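I hope you will forgive my troubling you with a question about protein structure. You will find the record immediately after this paragraph.
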Amino acid sequence: MRSTKGCPAGRETRRLRPVYPPNGLARSNRAKADRDPAEWMPPLPEAHCRYVGEWTAMKLRWDLAADQAEADALTMYTEACETTVVHYTPAP
């Protein structure tokens, strides 16, 4: 839904509906906190490749280093994720 109420003249905003995670996902997000793939992986094995791909994209985008345990975990998981393609845009 679009609304111009309360906006400067000529500006338009978009109101977003809240998105609620499916059962269990919020609990899973709290469990992972700020842990890397060496310390936490999604409980469902079919989500591992997507998670590793998104984690890798985030590291590449922001040019972040990985410690040895994290690098070893990423290597182990990516061997099983041959079809996962990592897309990222370097941060400005």
